[in-house]
């Protein structure tokens, strides 16, 4: 499904600020895998997402989705396969456009955009049905501008927009980090149910250690641009936050340095 | 007096097409496009040359639109592929178009006197203005329709949240080029119609056109608001007409001369830009003060004497 082979990325190469963002990453996701990613600041988690979604091209290595080599393709051409939710609730939606217009743009993901109307009657019925699933009452105001929604509502809408066309790969980049705890929890539950129901192959970066253990069927830990730990479903079941932190310190030789980390 | 107003309504409706073009770049793409000063003349020049060459004025209008489209594509390419700052891309095309327009016309002035411009020969003011209004509304509605298509939504999202629409597979370079092209096509069409209305094309008729376009869009929004695309484009049309009426009235005042027109226009735009933002920040401050007062009444007062809780 998703395959990264020896992927590397440097920031500011050849300058005094040179930094290894990713070094020789090998990662294979099977269809339906839900992998959580944790790591300290600057571990390369976001770069990993950017290299998969096409925001960045790797300096070396290969990215394959469904067998197609994609790492040279720009972001807008990879969107055919990749759905993404960003950390910033403002990033995933267009604030001055209506809810149904936003959904219409998501509906045309990766397709040719021509002169057919974006919101047709058939699509509107589909959008209604999808919005109802969120349970936020958004289906009652499809013509409200997205800018009027709260951060939590926008993030729920972003999640819906990223997933309802069933992308091959779903990337979640700390998508609950900017929300208050109650809203973050409801978005997390929503994420879990959508991913399970649609059997989406998912890669989720999180700062919440407890969440990383609870969600998904596999956990990877990154440090300094490398994957230092890969926990499978069996072992993950019995893992605790303390064990995970201890494991991190043993392998990396330093403490988990992250001002935002949530231990559970 | 009435005649002056009727004349400015007619002229305003013709300039409204230009204002719709400016609305696309300025409001939708958030890109103040100075190409307009050149492409307006390009439209007029193409129309004048074709009509004096014996072609139909309708065909001249279509050709003018195509000319503006091409000019806009160039600006869009400079900005996106050439990675040149948006304002500078527009300035470069504006300067280049000055020479190109002279080439098209062959001389700085081209008169249409003695050639047929059937539409503008209709002698009844009301019939003529009615037909022009119907045509402008038709163009407005077509633009509204376009902005609701899949491509149109992508164009709007490019100005609203480019990162988001890229993640959904739209190439924002392409949508920008399409938007700037379409905008200048409309501006050139407006230039072609103004040329037919005035019976001549003039190389310097585009100076300050972008500011007039901005003034129209801003005045219209102040009067009608811009809640939806429908209202925003209607506002641009109404704004263009109101601008012409304001100018006509201003010029009737004894202390203004015709040459003061540009400074009046600039003043209108400056006031229209400064007043709303000053108002907004004043209201915001008042609201914050009021809410703070409300909240502080509700929360218990701090104990006196610094930390003597017991």
Automatic annotation (TrEMBL), chain A:
Pfam family, one: ABC_tran
Protein topology in the membrane: Peripheral membrane protein
Keyword terms, alphabetized: ATP-binding, Cell membrane, Membrane, Nucleotide-binding, Transport
Keyword Oxidoreductase: no
The ABC transporter domain, residue ranges: 2-249
Domain of life: Bacteria
GO MF: ATP binding; ATP hydrolysis activity
Cellular compartments annotated: Cell membrane
InterPro entries: AAA+_ATPase, ABC_transporter-like_ATP-bd, ABC_transporter-like_CS, ABC_transporter_ATP-bind, P-loop_NTPase
Any Gene Ontology CC annotation: plasma membrane
Main location as per UniProt: membrane
PANTHER family with a match to the protein in the record: NITRATE ABC TRANSPORTER ATP-BINDING PROTEIN (PTHR42788:SF7), TAURINE IMPORT ATP-BINDING PROTEIN-RELATED (PTHR42788)
Protein name according to UniProt: ABC transporter ATP-binding protein
TrEMBL record, chain B:
GO MF annotations, alphabetized: transmembrane transporter activity
Pfam families reported for this sequence: BPD_transp_2 (PF02653)
One term under GO cellular component: plasma membrane
Compositionally biased spans, kind Polar residues: 293-302
Primary location recorded for the protein, binned into one broad class: membrane
Transmembrane feature ranges: 12-29, 58-79, 86-106, 126-143, 177-197, 203-224, 229-251, 263-282
Membrane topology summary: Multi-pass membrane protein
Residue span of region Disordered: 290-310
Keywords of this entry: Cell membrane, Membrane, Transmembrane, Transmembrane helix
Metal-binding listed as a keyword: no
Subcellular location as annotated: Cell membrane
Alphabetized InterPro entries for the sequence: ABC_transp_permease
The name this protein goes by in its record: ABC transporter permease
Species annotation: Paenibacillus darwinianus
Lineage, top ranks: Bacteria, Bacillati, Bacillota, Bacilli, Bacillales
């Amino acid at each position: 499904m998703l395959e990264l082979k020896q992927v590397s990325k440097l920031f500011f190469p050849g300058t005094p600020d040179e930094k290894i963002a990713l070094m020789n990453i090998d990662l294979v996701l099977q269809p339906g895998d839900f992998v959580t990613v944790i790591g300290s600041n600057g571990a390369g988690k976001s770069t990993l997402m950017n290299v998969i979604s096409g925001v960045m091209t790797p300096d070396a290595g290969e990215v394959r989705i469904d067998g197609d080599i994609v790492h040279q393709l720009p972001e807008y051409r990879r969107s055919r396969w990749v759905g993404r939710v960003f950390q910033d609730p403002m990033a995933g939606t267009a604030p001055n456009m209506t809810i149904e217009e936003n959904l219409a743009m998501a509906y045309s993901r990766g397709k040719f955009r021509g002169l057919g109307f974006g919101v047709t009657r058939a699509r509107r019925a589909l959008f209604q049905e999808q919005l109802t699933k969120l349970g936020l009452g958004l289906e009652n105001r499809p013509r409200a501008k997205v800018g009027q929604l709260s951060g939590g509502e926008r993030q729920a809408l972003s999640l819906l927009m990223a997933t309802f066309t069933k992308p091959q790969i779903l990337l979640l980049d700390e998508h609950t980090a900017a929300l208050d705890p109650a809203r973050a929890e409801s978005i997390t539950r929503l994420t879990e149910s959508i991913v399970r129901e649609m059997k989406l192959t998912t890669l989720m970066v999180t700062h919440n250690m407890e969440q990383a253990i609870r969600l998904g069927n596999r956990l990877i830990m990154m440090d300094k641009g490398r994957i230092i730990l890969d926990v499978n479903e069996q072992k993950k079941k019995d893992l605790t936050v303390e064990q995970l932190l201890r494991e991190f310190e043993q392998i990396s030789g330093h403490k988990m340095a992250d001002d935002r980390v949530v231990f559970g | 007096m009435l005649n002056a107003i009727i004349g400015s309504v007619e002229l305003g409706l013709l300039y409204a097409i230009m204002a719709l073009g400016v609305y696309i770049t300025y409001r939708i793409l958030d890109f103040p496009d100075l190409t307009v000063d050149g492409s307006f003349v390009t439209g007029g020049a193409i129309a004048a040359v074709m009509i004096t060459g014996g072609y139909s004025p309708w065909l001249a209008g279509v050709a003018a639109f195509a000319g503006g489209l091409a000019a806009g594509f160039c600006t869009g390419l400079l900005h996106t592929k050439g990675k040149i700052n948006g304002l500078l891309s527009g300035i470069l095309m504006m300067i280049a178009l000055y020479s190109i327009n002279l080439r098209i016309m062959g001389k700085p002035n081209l008169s249409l006197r003695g050639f047929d411009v059937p539409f503008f020969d209709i002698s009844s003011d009301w019939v003529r203005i009615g037909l022009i209004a119907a045509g402008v509304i038709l163009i407005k509605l077509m633009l509204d329709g376009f902005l609701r298509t899949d491509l149109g939504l992508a164009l709007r999202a490019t100005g609203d949240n480019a990162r988001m629409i890229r993640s959904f597979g739209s190439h924002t370079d392409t949508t920008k080029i399409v938007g700037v092209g379409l905008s200048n096509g409309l501006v050139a069409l407006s230039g072609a119609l103004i040329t037919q209305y005035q019976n001549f094309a003039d190389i310097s008729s585009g100076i300050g056109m972008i500011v007039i376009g901005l003034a129209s869009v801003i005045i219209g929004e102040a009067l009608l608001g811009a809640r939806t695309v429908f209202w925003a484009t209607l506002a641009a049309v109404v704004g263009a007409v109101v601008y012409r009426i304001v100018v006509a009235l201003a010029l009737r005042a004894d202390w203004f001369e015709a040459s003061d027109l540009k400074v009046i226009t600039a003043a209108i735009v400056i006031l229209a830009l400064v007043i709303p933002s000053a108002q907004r920040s004043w209201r915001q401050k008042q609201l914050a003060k009021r809410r703070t007062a409300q909240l502080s009444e509700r929360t218990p007062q701090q104990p006196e004497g610094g930390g003597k809780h017991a």
